[in-house]
Give the backbone structure.
Amino acid sequence: MEKKEANRYTRILEAIFARHYKKGVSEIDFERTEFSQVAEELGIILPKNLGDVLYSFRYRNPLPKTITSKAPKGYEWIIRPAGKGKYKLAVVKETAIVPSGVLAETKIPDATPGIITTYSLTDEQSLLAKLRYNRLIDIFTGLTCYSLQNHLRTTLRDGSQVETDEIYIGLDKRGAHYVLPVQAKGGKDKIGIVQIEQDFELGSIKFPRLVCRAIAAQFMEDNLIALFEFEQTKDGIRVSSEKHYRLVRSDELSSEELQSYFVRQS
């Protein structure tokens, strides 16, 4: 996002927060229609894509300091959908979902067709393709997984519209079936707790008879992918598993490295 766009979005959100905030509150409800009112009051040209104002703060950029400074120590503000055209700023325990800097990498021979790599148009599209062709969801979860649908859109119980990047159906050795919503993020975008919450709800609505295992993937580098699995706890969404996979040419994976993987499993 250009700096002027970030500044414009920041001013709009700060004004909405200031409208509703009172000391001690943990939730602030607001509606998309307020963007127009605030932009007019501030003399700001309204963005053509209103949804990008919220998307930018949920997945790309931190909330303004004027907002984050109002959260108690160890907590943070997040933006949740609260119905059609409605949103909620809520205080939750801090949960930064970022790849670990000390986790070991596992090398995987890259099975992505060259023509797919050449013509992938976005980081997200490229990441989803690499997950699929290299069976990384299978490897990470220990399930046999099948891609069911890309960009599945649905309506949650509160009327919010959501979209999941890809849905997999998994099968374990006992024959149990799983649904695995996958969120894919390029290097600049961040994995948001709200999306994971929504994926668990999507699983319960669309696939109530299946066990839901929510997954997120993020590029750390072009061929280094971090995978996360989440679980729902009394303290909210938490990471239950994280692995880093580096896609390499077959001649970049030595017999010593293969032996080390075998020893690790023994």
Q: What stands out?
A: The two ends are 48 Å apart (CA to CA). The first helix runs from residue 3 to 20.
